Amino acid sequence: MAQKVALITGITGQDGSYLAALLLSKSYLVHGLVRRSSSLSTARVDPLYNDPNLHLHYGDVCDGQALSRLVAQVRPDELYNLAAMSHVAVSFEVPEYAADSAGLGCLRCLEAVRAAGLGASCRFYQASSSEMFGPSPELPLTELSPFRPRSPYACAKLYAHWTVATYRDSYGMHATSGILFNHESPRRGRTFVTRKVTAGVARIAAGLETCLRLGNLDAARDWGHARDYADGMWRMLQRDEPGDYVLATGEMHTVRELVERAFAFVGVEIGWVGERGSRGEVGVDAKIPGVVLVKIDPAYFRPSEVGTLLGDASKAREELGWEPTTTFEALVEEMMRSDMELVAKGDLLT
User: Fold this and answer.
1) Alpha helices in 84-206 (DSSP H)
2) Do the Cβ atoms of 301 and 285 come closer than 8 Å?
3) Which cofactors, by name (predicted)?
4) Which residue, 79, 81, 155, 159, is CA-closest to 113?
5) Mean pLDDT across the chain, nearest whole number?
6) Is the N end or the C end of the chain the one with fewer CB atoms within 10 Å?
7) String of DSSP letters for 271-311
8) What is the average per-residue pLDDT within 219-242?
9) What single-letter DSSP state applies at residue 135?
């Protein structure tokens, strides 16, 4: 049997690194698209660097010609489009770039596949997002739930999502969208709230900081582990028929719960003082009430907030045999343990 070839855009991100490791373990030849920057950005895939089946290429989903050349050169059996400006809050600051990378980037990938004459053979995965649902009166959310995007990022992802469906229906392409709910890991960037909390608590425990500043403590999300979700991506492209799939744990937790569990890992019980949800509310050490460890900072509120997101992955369970394997509690513990180790090694000094 011929060796399968995969191309991953966004391979140096959290999801891309887990997916690359999974595909290499299955004996794929893996090509990855790396966006050039003046600082090294390959840390997440450095452990895979010596694998002879891994090949990295400079490029960008915002550069259609370069992308087309790479697809024509690599001729992938599977293309996973994970590249995007993926920070919801930052998308309000750079909306045009968010639309270009997260929206048009998907279109360029699909067109690159068609231009290379691979429309009938290359299986395509698009990283859609639960943010497309926006605020919904009906929970949990499924593949059939209505979309109400509330950020430039979510609007761009919805454009890409419907583009995939259009190319699937119009050209008969094996094009699939994974509607992934929040998925985290020790590899998550430190500007995302989960990692901001675990890294911040680790630094506070080490005496490097005194206080954690956050936005909406009562925002609730369906949080799983990125490693599980990478497995779901691969499973989607092994199906004979393309389609859309929600990946989610079916459990919802608040940022407040995340904070409490992260501090509990270092032996600190958080008590909340002030009106719940107000800008004056603070989190204190329950054993030393005068020590403020958490403050609300208005700078971290989004112009438009999605309060709750909860997914129903029944279709993925039934058709893909996919199940999340990591609980919320285990996820926070793994992230805390990793960040405590990084602090001890001096890697989280700033």
Assistant:
1) 88-91, 95-98, 105-115, 152-171, 193-205
2) no
3) NADP(+)
4) 79
5) 95
6) N
7) EEESSTTSTT-EEEETTEEEEEEEEE-GGG--SS---B--B
8) 98
9) S
Q: In a 3-state reduction of DSSP, which class is residue 129?
A: strand
Residue 312 tokens, joined: 């129903």
What are the structure tokens assigned to 285, written together? Answer: 């050490």
Element housing 90 (H / E): helix 88-91
Neighbours of 113 (CB within 10 A): 28
Statement: residue 284 has pLDDT above 90: yes
Dihedral angle computed from the Cα positions of residues 105, 107, 112 and 118, in that order, rounded to the nearest 10 degrees = 130
Which uninterrupted H or E stretch holds 34? strand 29-34
Q: Which residues pair with 56 in a beta bridge?
A: 32
One-letter amino acid identity for 119? G
Position 346 scores a pLDDT of 92
Task: Provide the residue type at 291 as one letter.
Answer: V
Instruction: Please give the pLDDT value at position 24.
Output: 98
d(C-alpha 260, C-alpha 288), whole Å = 15
